[in-house]
Specification:
With 139 residues, the protein is mainly alpha-helical. Helix 2 crosses helix 3. The chain is built from 7 helices and 2 strands, in the order ααααβααβα.
C-alpha cells in the first residue's frame, strides 16, 4: 500500500510525513484503501498503521479477508534493524518506540483480522501459510 501511495503522490512516505505530516499521510492512506478495496485478485500489504484506523478496516471488512501476520516483537526488531524508511521509527529510542507501537497496535490488529497466520517463518513459508489459511476460510 505504501508503494501505491508513493507512486500516486510522486513522493516517498518519509517525504509525505516531512512535507505534510502524519495526518495528511493517513488521509492518503485511507484513499488508497478505498481504491485498492475495489480491485479484484490482489494481496494488499497495508502499512503498519493502516488498520489502527477503523475507517480503513471498514473499507475491507466483509468484502475481503484481513490477514494478520503475527510476528513477535523481537523478530520485528531484527527485521527492521537497518530500516531508515519508516518515519515513526526514526527516533533516538527506537526500541522503546517499537515496543510501544507493538503493544498499542497488536490488540487492534487482532480485532480487525479475519485470519491470523504466524509470520515468523521465511517469506515463502509465510505466503504459503496465508494461502492455505485463506483457502480454508473460503471453503
Amino acid at each position: 500500500m505504501d508503494t501505491y501511495i508513493e507512486k500516486k503522490s510522486g513522493m516517498t512516505v518519509s517525504e509525505i510525513f516531512e512535507k505534510y505530516g502524519e495526518n495528511e499521510f493517513r488521509d492518503m492512506e485511507h484513499e488508497a484503501c478505498k481504491e485498492l478495496a475495489e480491485k479484484s485478485n490482489l494481496i494488499i500489504a497495508s502499512g503498519g498503521g493502516a488498520f489502527t484506523f477503523e475507517r480503513n478496516v471498514r473499507v475491507f471488512k466483509g468484502k475481503d479477508k484481513i490477514v494478520l501476520l503475527d510476528v513477535p516483537l523481537n523478530i520485528i526488531k531484527y527485521r527492521l534493524r537497518n530500516d531508515k524508511t519508516r518515519p515513526l521509527l526514526q527516533k533516538p529510542d527506537r526500541d522503546k518506540v517499537m515496543k510501544e507501537l507493538y503493544e498499542k497496535r497488536l490488540p487492534i490488529y487482532k480485532k480487525a483480522a479475519d485470519i491470523t497466520v504466524s509470520g515468523k517463518s521465511s517469506p515463502m513459508k509465510t505466503a504459503l501459510a496465508v494461502i492455505a489459511a485463506v483457502e480454508k476460510e473460503n471453503s
